[in-house]
Amino acid sequence: MNANSDPIHEKYKDLDFEDGKPVNEIPALAQLQAEQSGKTRITMRVDSDILAIFKEKVESTGGK
């Protein structure tokens, strides 16, 4: 994904996030994040043909 393909890019493109803080520095957001315990974010690289198979399976089962 790049900025031009993000549907909400236009809404936020001129905002300055230089003074943005990490979630763990904002107690309310840190609490919300902690409530999502039991889940771990991961990143992995998958061959395009394998990803296409998974997407096909999702579409055929009515998933999003």
UniProtKB/TrEMBL annotation:
It comes from the Bacteria. Residues 7-20 have a biased composition (Basic and acidic residues). Residues 1-20 are annotated as: Disordered. This is CopG family transcriptional regulator. It comes from uncultured Thiotrichaceae bacterium. The lineage of its organism: Bacteria, Pseudomonadati, Pseudomonadota, Gammaproteobacteria, Thiotrichales.
